[in-house]
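Co-fold these.
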Amino acid sequence: MRIVLDGMGSDKFPDPEVEGAVIAAREFGDDIILTGDEARLRPLLETHLKSATDAKVEIVHAKDVVEMGDKPAFASRQKSENSMAVGLQWVKDGKADAFVTMGNTGAALTNGLFILKRIRGVKRPALTVLLPTRKGRAVLLDIGANADCKPEYLLQFGIMGSVYARKVLGIENPRVATLSNGEEEGKGNTLVKESAALLKKSKLNYIGNVESKEFFAGEAEVVVTDGFTGNIFLKTSESVASFMSDSIRENIVKSPLTTLGGLLVRPAFAAIRKQMDPTEVGGAPLLGLDGIAIVGHGRSNARAVRSAINVARIAAKEKLLDAIRAELAAQLSEAELAEAGNE
Amino acid sequence: MRIVLDGMGSDKFPDPEVEGAVIAAREFGDDIILTGDEARLRPLLETHLKSATDAKVEIVHAKDVVEMGDKPAFASRQKSENSMAVGLQWVKDGKADAFVTMGNTGAALTNGLFILKRIRGVKRPALTVLLPTRKGRAVLLDIGANADCKPEYLLQFGIMGSVYARKVLGIENPRVATLSNGEEEGKGNTLVKESAALLKKSKLNYIGNVESKEFFAGEAEVVVTDGFTGNIFLKTSESVASFMSDSIRENIVKSPLTTLGGLLVRPAFAAIRKQMDPTEVGGAPLLGLDGIAIVGHGRSNARAVRSAINVARIAAKEKLLDAIRAELAAQLSEAELAEAGNE
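Predicted complex below.
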């Protein structure tokens, strides 16, 4: 398998990318292609490789870099040879099986739409994550690609998310729910109510609304929401988790006895951290693009880069795109499939 | 001071209400008026009172009860003598200074709008909470009164929330922010972008967008959002906190050493629980109603009922409504003040 990795995406690029690429190439035996400034990437790569045959990591030069402050549209048009665009082009041309970046989500989406285009019938790609629940993991989408959504988008998120749950979590008929401010039917804002009506009529295993509590209880395997709400949900989860960890740490060191206790409970905390850890969860696919594109966290370390590469490999190995194409064809009418392309 | 308390609101009514009323009456020396089914309330009250002068708690009979499954509009119209309506009428008639319920938020809002009406100029009342942050506490609104909002509502939430922060937290010129999916200007969905433009032009101390992380870091004292997003934010915070607590507990009891450690860190956890505990945080005012109305959690125990009563007392003592009236008059034009009444 060949995975192309944006070498210039993370907040601390290119160190996490180069090291992560070497780790992944060694562990998985895949070819990793790093895109970016060759003059920076090459010497760094040399320091990580133990021998000429240690890990199959290539470098493809890309002269432009998407900066954090760049507007996504600017980045994809004016910087057409940015490290994302060069990588995505490799996927488009069939020279790589999947693309991975730790860069700006907006730029990845804009570059992705420009180069890979959408799968036929898809109205909007959705940024999709797997989150831990009490019963395992659940798929949440959209977590940030589309701040404003229409009910038809949420229906499609349900279709694509169900395929993802089947392929990645191995769940044959995943339960699909709308994230809402109440479980009862009729709860929600206008978008949720209208989306619920569409989902109910669909062939999906739609179970209605879930609140955050039911999400974490694992009552659905696929939860759909607009990208604004999904982003707030995800970031609130992360923030509360670290707010609590910090508070626990501060309260523990306040007395000698609790400090001792803190040392003893350390293994328990390590287990939880691993479960909640974004570096273990890996990257988020932009489902709906006509090519596998995975976005990892900007704060990723090498380990998190390796996890994002693993998400890409699994998606490619499971032929995720073919499955999404088949499912859209099965659930949408020919008119709906043709219509999306004109939006 | 006289506080009227819905005796039939909580999930386990009327026990928490009756006990909470007695605790509050004793602690604060206020008169508490319990509304509801006198035949149920009276004997329960007798069991809690140690003497005839122990605590000043009266009972006012209300023949109807708002059930959990009742539609709010039905509850307020068909059950016009429900325990909420009777209590709100006491506030309306000037016989009590504030109203408190642990019941359904939707029914409290509908009953409140019907009986108390809105403060002149207010388009929509907002359910408002104080949440803990790293720097103290912050006001968040709306957390559930209005699932769909317009930019003008968020501007008004900013005005009312600023008054609340000044009166309750003692912050003279609170920083106001919009909850968004990114801090940078221009981030957000359409509602956030349009609200930001209005807030920027206002006399409020508007600092722009905050994400969940900045919320908990205490970067703003007032954070405005639509009731759907605010509700998701609040419930996600609660869910993650209890998800983490449960995970910590389960991981701690897995080995004898971590179990011992768990016993030693117990005081540290108690401190955090107290900080995060909804029974300590108390009730949420429906800001914008022309009368003080506080909604507590359905799962409240007596201690939480007492906290909600305390929120009501402080609002009344601080003359919150007069301050909101004055601030709306200072920040809105005469046309805007007159217009809201016609909506």
